[in-house]
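Today's session is about reading a structure prediction critically. Students often jump straight to the picture, but the first step is always the sequence itself: look for stretches that repeat, for charged clusters, for runs of hydrophobic residues. Only then move on to the predicted structure, which in these notes is written as discrete structure tokens rather than atom positions. Here is the chain we will use throughout the hour.
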Amino acid sequence: QVQLVESGGGLVQTGGSLRLSCIASGSIFTIDAMAWYRQAPGKQRELVAQIRTGGSTNVADSVKGRFTISRDSAKNMVYLQMNSLIPEDTAVYYCNADIWTTSWEMRPYWGQGTQVTVSS
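Below is the predicted structure for this chain, in token form.
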């Protein structure tokens, strides 16, 4: 009984900004890494950014310097601040988290996705 729900997507002009949020709820013991992925039309799903429990991050080269991932572990939330958006950022963005539901059971969970559209 674990669910991840994204919010904050929408339509924005080139150069604009959006902030995506994701909250995990349900029977959660603890959460390890959290991440954002995206899938553009006709393309494979790709990792955008990942943040680990200690706060270290990995970001894709395509968004480095423009996107920032952060988390609030106490609230089971992860955020993606997206600045200087370009049409190539248009995609469905998915929240991902490695969640322990007990002290011995862990697996990745995925959100339903939120659409981000950047107009040219």
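Discussion point for the tutorial: The two ends are 40 Å apart (CA to CA).
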